[in-house]
Design a protein that fits this description.
Elements (H helix, E strand, L loop, with lengths): L4 E7 L4 H15 L3 E6 L13 E7 L11 H7 L13 E8 L8 H12 L3 E2 L4 E4 L7 H18 L19 E5 L30 E7 L10 E6 L21 H10 L7 E6 L14 E2 H8 L8 H8 L5 H10 L5 H9 L9
Keywords: Cytoplasm, FAD, Flavoprotein, FMN, NADP, Oxidoreductase
GO molecular function, one term: FMN binding
Subunit structure: Interacts with CIAPIN1; as part of the cytosolic iron-sulfur (Fe-S) protein assembly (CIA) machinery. Interacts with DCPS.
Length: 355
């Protein structure tokens, strides 16, 4: 029997492609596949020649650019010296996430699909072009495409005898388990921004602690938009920039929101914990200290002020004790319930904390 392994590689700028990749992984596990999810630049790209089944989930940013966490992979894949049969044993599918209001709509996914085909890959399906402009967002394309994809994959890799697809009503095992430390254990200290190692180019994983020099509002007080000119001191950082570049900052949640979140979930913000992966080979979240306090986790790591995605409602449904509430959450996380979810959550910009 062939080994039933699937690799899901994503290029994500704002987290949507990563969220979709994680969703595909959950669906793979329900079909009894061994599954790994990795950002394209975290993956050892030379190993691609040994893979048999890969799903790529890629966003397109700016004017047809690849996301930051797939730029090295992108450069490697388009090297002229790669033999045209490099990926001849690879079955693959590409799911693109883009916005049709931009001229280069889903450019990265289209180009990736074409390049893997050139290198001998065997496409299971035409490239999927998710569109933010659709009333239901990318899911309008993603949902039917995934149904077709699983039909193709299960034809190649049938379910082992005696096993059935795990029902959506069953919660899958978690990726990590959280272990509280004894209450008298010493508290980890450490600010959000660790000083960068000498000569390390500042990046998402190696931020530079810059001092804010000034913060001025440049729109009139009566104007509905609050536009600001903010100056940072980046002397000694090695950061260079041009007009039009974007600055990434590490935000944190305000203490009142953190307090409310902990009260709602009956968490002691000062308790310390360590995270342990449930499967070997699963890496721990980047930048999360070990051990860590609940307060640090919620302040610096969990995005409780974002508008939650569909997967969040799916997860909540497993923990709801109220049957009506559970049914509503399941509806929000179903393909049929997307218009209702949009009205409840996206239109009023309702945050995770509010939900």
């Amino acid at each position: 029997m062939m080994e039933r392994k699937i690799l899901i590689l994503f290029g994500s700028q704002t987290g949507t492609a990563q969220d979709t990749a994680e969703r595909i992984c959950r669906e793979a596990k329900r079909r009894h596949f061994q599954c790994r999810v990795e950002a394209l630049d975290s993956y050892e790209v030379a190993s691609l020649i040994n893979e048999l089944l890969v799903v790529f989930v890629c966003a397109t940013t700016g004017q047809g650019d690849p996301p930051d966490n797939m730029k090295m992979f992108w450069r490697f894949l388009f090297r002229k010296n790669l033999p045209p049969s490099s990926l001849c044993q690879l079955d693959y599918a590409v799911l693109g996430l883009g916005d049709s209001s931009y001229p280069k709509f889903n450019f990265v996914a289209k180009k990736l699909h074409k390049r893997v085909l050139q290198l001998g890959g065997n496409p299971l399906l035409p490239v999927a072009l998710g569109d933010d402009q659709h009333d239901l967002g990318p899911d309008a394309v993603v949902d039917p495409w995934l149904l077709a994809l699983w039909d193709k994959i299960l034809a190649l890799y049938p379910l082992p005898p005696g096993l059935e697809i795990i029902s959506p009503d069953v919660r899958l095992p978690p990726k990590y388990t959280l272990h509280y430390l004894a209450e008298d254990s010493p508290h980890p200290d450490g600010g959000l921004l660790q000083p960068t190692a000498p000569r390390t180019v500042p990046s998402e994983l190696h931020p530079f602690p810059a001092r804010m020099v000034s913060n001025q509002r440049v729109t009139a007080e009566s104007h509905f938009q609050d536009v600001r000119l903010i100056e940072f001191d980046v002397v000694g950082s090695g950061i260079t920039f041009n007009a039009g570049d974007v600055v990434m900052i590490q935000p944190q949640n305000c203490p009142e929101d953190v307090q409310q979140f902990c009260q709602l979930l009956r968490l002691d913000p000062d308790r310390c914990f360590v995270l342990k992966p449930t499967e070997p080979g699963t890496s721990l979240p980047a930048l999360l200290p070990q051990p860590c306090t609940i307060r640090y986790l919620v302040t610096h790591y969990l995005d409780i002020s974002c508008v939650p995605r569909r997967s969040f409602f799916e997860l909540l449904s497993y923990f709801s004790m109220n049957e009506l509430e559970r049914e509503k959450l399941q509806e929000f996380s179903s393909a049929q319930g997307q218009e209702e979810l949009y009205s409840y959550c996206n239109r009023p910009r309702r945050t995770t904390l509010e939900v």
